[in-house]
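Mods, move this if it's the wrong board.
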Amino acid sequence: MQNPIKLTSDATTSIPRWIMLLITLIYAFSGLFGHDPWKNDDAVGFGVMWTLAHGSLMDWVLPNLQGRGVLVGPPLPYWLGAISIKYFGGVIGEVNAARLVSGCCFVLSAISIWYASYLLGRRTEVQPMQFALGGQPSPKEYGKTMADGALLIFLACVGLAQRVHEASPLLVELLGITLLIYGVVRSYDKPWQGGIISGLGMVAVGLSGMLWTAIFLWVAAFIGFYTRSNKRLIGWLVGSITVTLVGLSIWPILWYQSGLSPEKVANALFIWLGRDQLQATISFDSLEFLTINFWAYTWPVWPLSFWSIYLWSTKGKSGINAAHLVIPGLLFLAEMILFLLYKDLSERDLMLLLPPMAILASFGLPFLRRGLISFIDWLSLLTFTLAGAFIWVIWFAKMTGYPKSTADNVARYLPGFVAQFSFLDLFFALIITAIWFAIVRWRTSRAPKVIWRCLIISTSGTILLWVLLMSLWLPTINYAKTYQPVAMRFLKALPKDAKCIDSTFLGDAQLASFHFFTSLNLKDDENCDYKLTHSSEEARASEILNRHQLELVWEDRRDSDRDERLRLYRVSTKK
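Not the wrong board. Structure tokens:
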């Protein structure tokens, strides 16, 4: 059965590779630098990396947050962040150096998605219909077009924006998943090379997330090979298993070399296997979370990916067994099954679904009708233009006080914030806005035939909004999400006789931020003479349990958070 896709070579004109790399770099590094650690994940991730960079060998063996001493998870992301802090922190600042790892991991993930889609797009079973007189695209041209589409869809996902710009271990895990996909696809031509790349991906996943995640994904990849009767399976198996076992053994070897006690080894294994995160049956809380949040977080990739699966499984020459469906489809399914076993699923975890979905979605682009493409274009144009205008209006109100009602609302939400004009921020905002209008004009006036045309406005709009936010609004967002002002006020109010401050009842983000901004001796020790807490109820319960007397010394909050209350108590023993 021949594929029902009819495309000329004009419809598969690819975007120059340097342009794809440039927009990826702009998206990855805009807003990555130049601000404090933000509540919550960004501050925690940086705090652990900072602890390793300034800590002992044992901190590298069991990554933890200074003052808390509890293993936070597998070590690879924190190793990379700490190394970056050590080598680049003195040049670009420690916070920027920690986030540099996130930016590099995202760019490498995008490159892996592009090349995996390119190799899949060159395969025989996905090629368009052959014309009697020629004029159809070559496999190489078609592969490049599919790769451009996959990357544009990936960049357009609304759930990526904040998460990929944090010092988060999930960025290393994301890179691992994309390397696994690329390695599996590469193995169809070069099994040993693909096996090594897949193994590196599994090491990245296994040393940055749960070990079960790596196992689930590897099994899914193996099933994809096995069901397609691929004769190159042995090369991929040997390469991937060898690299995976060698890479994953690094952490246990460090346990042995550092002389960890059996109790600490058992606790590390407990956390690595995700025993505190997984359950044996489906979690209805996670199912409810997916039902509510999946559709918004993965927009616009989910409708295109499901559409692609349906059409290729019913109309394609290879049916559901085609490589471009089997490989990303099984990995997506493995992740979904794993997520349903999570005790507590969050939106940041959904980021790991996007690479296989973006690849699936790209192969649905040739089937899109002109009317649907026009609807997507105009909906995206209207949405992103209005959102961009909103960002400009708020910025103008902050700078000038007009419109007064808008300026008053900003002041009410962020009391004490003083907007400062930056010519450089305005310059970048004007440049990206001008590029947006140029892209819109090109798209609406020339009516290009390329199959990725419906993605240009969506992807450009996503990048437009993020760059505008990270230029015009960055000081405002930083003021709203940082603990620096309240930490500095705390430092001034701290009595001079405070030698030890108990942080037991602080959140991880608060503890990491206060350590970084104040350099004080905060630790989880109820024998300290002072207690810093964000929960007065827990502090009072501890007071009764330990027969302590608490005297309130200081109380404050972040200006943007009306619910959070930070309190410092002087602790004395009841007589």
